[in-house]
UniProtKB/TrEMBL annotation:
Domain Transcription regulator PadR N-terminal intervals: 7-76
Domain Transcription regulator PadR C-terminal: 90-165
Protein name: PadR family transcriptional regulator
Species name: Rhizocola hellebori
Gene3D superfamilies named in the record: Winged helix-like DNA-binding domain superfamily/Winged helix DNA-binding domain (1.10.10.10)
Stored InterPro entries: Tscrpt_reg_PadR_C, Tscrpt_reg_PadR_N, WH-like_DNA-bd_sf, WH_DNA-bd_sf
Length: 198
């Protein structure tokens, strides 16, 4: 998630202090994505250097920030730019499973179960939070829905990984039996062939 663009969006509503921006950011996300004050001010100073925000001293101690015309244009560009889907992200769980496949003595199926249980427990927590969220808290509701769909996708990937491994001959997952390297071309080239870069 782009903290800089979230701050620009909050400043599009009107001038604000850094602490106020942090409070509003966390209120909109239901504090699911914590943001420390240092990160807020570091980002604001970078935005100011780039000409996306301006500041003035109020009461001699705190700066109040406001979005500039360039900042408004940058926010609109970001809002209308689709996220990058060309290259698969470096997913920690995928890497863990790939590493486990190469390690002697690691029960990969048990590893998949451990992660599946963790994801299902997280889904239960978010489902409980969703049930307790008032209908008017749209921002938090959107964050919870996104998390639930993301976690569901991870569980589905774990199911698919287990099914793929079960189809290997002799259900042997030793490094010598598992080919982790593609035969030809990179994943990026394959993704592009599917229409990622046209």
């Amino acid at each position: 998630m782009s903290v800089r663009h979230a701050l620009l969006a909050l400043l599009a509503e009107g001038p604000k202090y850094g602490l106020r921006l942090r409070q509003e950011f966390q209120a909109q996300t239901g504090e699911v994505w914590p943001l420390n004050v240092g990160q807020v001010y570091t980002t604001l100073h970078r935005l100011e250097k780039e000409g996306n925000v301006e500041s003035d001293e109020v009461d001699g101690t705190q700066k109040r920030f406001r979005i500039t015309a360039e900042g408004s244009r940058e926010l609109q560009r970001w809002l209308h730019t689709p996220p990058d889907t060309d290259a698969p992200p470096r997913d920690e769980l995928v890497i863990k499973v790939q590493v486990a496949l190469r390690m002697p003595g690691v029960d990969v199926m048990e590893l998949l179960q451990v992660h599946r249980r963790h994801m299902v427990e997280a889904m239960q927590r978010y489902t409980h939070l969703k049930a307790e969220t008032p209908p008017g808290e749209v921002g938090l509701g959107l964050v919870i829905d996104a998390q639930l769909f993301r976690l569901e996708g991870i569980v589905r990937w774990l199911d698919a990984a287990e099914a793929r491994l079960r189809h290997l001959p002799d259900q042997s997952w030793a490094a010598s039996d598992v080919d982790l390297a593609p035969d030809t071309g990179s994943l990026r080239q394959r993704a592009n062939a599917l229409g990622g870069n046209r």
